[in-house]
Design brief:
The longest helix has 13 residues. β1 and β2 form a beta hairpin. 61% of the residues lie in helices and 2% in strands. The protein is mostly helical. It has a domain of 63 residues. α3 packs antiparallel against α4, α5 packs antiparallel against α6 and α15 packs parallel to α17.
């Protein structure tokens, strides 16, 4: 005997409608399982095959809830199959929130939209003694819990091939829900948290326009958006929200760190008091040259720590600003030394040369120079600069020679040997290092 149950399941799965028709028409119903076939077509098949099966079964024979849940896995025909199943069901028996969760799990965007558009919300609107509307959630599972829907959409894992459009997709779905919902039935703070993380300005604008701002800690919300680099939300807030509600110091500092010149200018136009030194420090820390230049051009220099700024220009390699500071301000040897060391350690040799020229070689003590200044395959230029511009006795020749053998710095090795500096390192050790690293030319030199 053939297994007709398996045959019907496979025919349904692969949409072989001729076989499905033959089994349903010519064979005894005891030989196959309609429910199992419906589950198979719900997960894998299409509407035509499903319709054949539904025509052959009674409404009370099918587990529509399970079939709807399985339809969410159907990559090609999810929505069409789900619509057929829904129309066949007694909707009062369905848990549409469970189905929605499954649709979000499998990223079935069209089905999610259909559920939100088609199914009633789980809210009951009543009137208070003062005539105001009061929305409360009902417990009926066939109604869609919009707060649950928001959570499911926020938590959706996006397929790799669709990640480029994930923010656009999620914001469209969320706005679809919000425009059909009363804010009181949605956990606004949870939504706001994600909105501020993702810089979803449209939803941010919607929330602030429909939720009593007195119930929101605007300053804390904006600070949170700052922390996640949500430029559009911050710019909109500075243009549309009362500045007294904003933690201006924090927004100014964060804007400088992220390089948001538009936001810096907006704050500058509307506020008088903020921590400008902290703002400048943040701009320098994150290498925001255009912010540092703007602050110097628009703010009185006495509000800044100029020696600190010189050090940061050396660290960041901002040679034009370094030259400008040298031209307009006086720095002592200690300040010049600090800035020059920073330039050397970060491979900015033009700035280092300017610093040494300004003070003179005798004004520098390079014994404090960090080994990171000349350790690494990309530091040959720095090492060459040091050997030719300062007293070699003030730097670690042994480490430099070892690195020459590690990275094949032939010219550096020649300089050390030609200038009788080899006595400051263990030549047998560096010889072995050169051998271990296959540096034949340096081995021959030694």
């Amino acid at each position: 005997m053939f297994d007709m149950k398996a045959a019907l399941n496979n025919a349904s799965k692969y949409n072989n409608t001729e076989i499905v028709k033959w089994i349903l028409t010519d064979l005894d119903t005891e030989l196959y399982d309609i429910d199992a076939a419906v589950f198979s077509v719900s997960e894998h098949g299409n509407e035509d095959t499903l319709q054949l099966l539904l025509n052959q079964s009674g409404i009370h024979m099918l587990d529509i809830q399970s079939a709807l849940t399985l339809s969410c896995r159907n990559e090609r025909s999810c929505l069409g199959v789900a619509k057929l199943l829904y129309r066949r069901a007694n909707t009062l028996d369905l848990d549409m929130n469970a189905v929605l969760s499954e649709a979000c799990k499998y990223y079935r965007i069209d089905f999610i939209q259909w559920i939100i558009a088609t199914c009633d919300q789980n809210k009951t609107v009543t009137k208070t003694n003062y005539g105001n509307k009061n929305c409360i959630n009902s417990l009926d599972k066939y109604h869609v819990d919009m707060d649950h829907a928001v959570t499911c959409i926020l938590d959706m894992n996006t397929p790799e091939q669709k990640r480029d459009s994930v923010n656009e997709t999620k914001t469209q779905l969320l706005m679809f829900i919000l425009n059909k919902s009363d804010p009181s039935i949605i956990h606004i703070y949870k939504l706001l948290t994600e909105v501020c993380k993702k810089d979803w300005l449209e939803i941010f604008h919607w929330i602030l326009g429909r939720v009593d701002n007195a119930c929101l800690n605007i300053g804390e919300i904006i600070n949170f958006a700052c922390r996640f680099g949500s430029f559009n939300i911050i710019k909109w807030s500075l243009r549309n929200i009362d500045m007294e509600l904003v933690d201006v110091d924090n927004v100014m500092v964060e804007s400088c760190g992220f390089g948001w010149l538009e936001c810096v200018v907006l704050i500058w136009k509307h506020c008088d008091n903020y921590k400008l030194q902290a703002a400048m420090t943040e701009a320098c820390t994150y290498g925001r040259l255009h912010i540092a230049e703007w602050l110097l051009q628009n703010v009185h220099y006495q509000l800044f720590n100029i020696p600190m700024l010189l050090k940061e220009t050396g660290r960041n390699g901002w040679i034009k600003m370094f030259c400008s500071l040298l031209q307009h301000f006086h720095f002592d040897k200690s300040e010049m030394h600090t800035a020059t060391i920073q330039a050397l350690e970060n491979n900015y040799l033009e700035i280092a040369e300017l610093g040494i020229t300004k003070v003179g070689k005798e004004g520098f003590d390079f014994s404090s120079l960090s080994e990171t200044a000349y350790v690494g395959a990309n530091k040959e230029g720095v090492v060459n600069f040091l050997l030719h511009n300062i007293d070699p006795k003030s730097i670690d020749i042994a480490t430099i020679m070892t690195n020459a053998c590690l990275f094949g710095w032939k010219d550096i090795a020649i300089f050390i040997l030609d200038n009788d500096l080899g006595s400051r390192c263990d030549l047998s050790l560096v010889f072995n290092t050169a051998c271990d690293n296959g540096e034949l030319e340096i081995v021959q030199l030694l």
